[in-house]
């Protein structure tokens, strides 16, 4: 399984941003390969992987999917406030997110930066 020590080197993740610089980066939401990360409130009917409270947060707010083609973000519940680089996503809109993209969940409540580490290419071994 993925743990926080792997987050900086191996797995794509979301890193929190805060007005207090000492708190920025203190929370990393890891999105392991071929997984779906559900973000919503703790009172949702379906258990949410990341439970956030605050203004504008829906029970089933959004999902982040790590597929072979990259990371994708989708609004899960109509009317959810989900912003990618300052632009609000439409209901049922699915977008690819890239390294250093900024995500906001809720009404300016939860701010995260996308971190997608570069994949190490396997070293070619020459046989003589």
Globular, elongated, flat, extended or rod-shaped: what is the shape?
globular
As a whole number of angstroms, the C-alpha radius of gyration is: 16 Å
Low-pLDDT segments, ≥5 res:
1-7
Q: Specify the number of helices.
A: 1
Q: Quote the average pLDDT.
A: 83
User: How far is the N terminus from the C terminus?
Assistant: 39 Å
Helix percentage: under 10%
Strand order, sheet with most strands: 2-1-11-10-7-8
Derived structural class: mainly beta
Q: Give the biggest beta sheet.
A: 6 strands, antiparallel
> What is the number of E strands?
11
Say what oligomer this is. single chain
Amount of beta strand: 35-45%
Order of helices and strands: HEEEEEEEEEEE
